[in-house]
Amino acid sequence: YWRYRWFFILINEIKTKDFPLFSEHCCPTDDSIMTLAVASALVECEKDYSKLAAETIKQMQLWGIKYPKAG
User: Fold this and answer.
1) pLDDT tens digits, one per residue of 2-53
2) Which end of the chain lies in a sparser environment, N or C, as judged by fewer CB atoms within 10 Å?
3) Of 46, 45, 43, nearest to 54 (Cα)?
């Protein structure tokens, strides 16, 4: 409850749209990388979705190795 209450208060107190959306400290999360992996698997399947599960596992492993510190 308090977590959501804090979020509600924070959202209602911010009145300006003048703030930096990205900074030099921004980095992709593991969820972002895995989303790219799923998208890559969909492309690689070329509409043959019977291969989707295996291709998704393969792409998640490849993207996970490429970005091990994401998150």
Assistant:
1) 455 555 556 566 677 787 778 888 888 999 999 999 999 999 999 899 999 9
2) N
3) 45
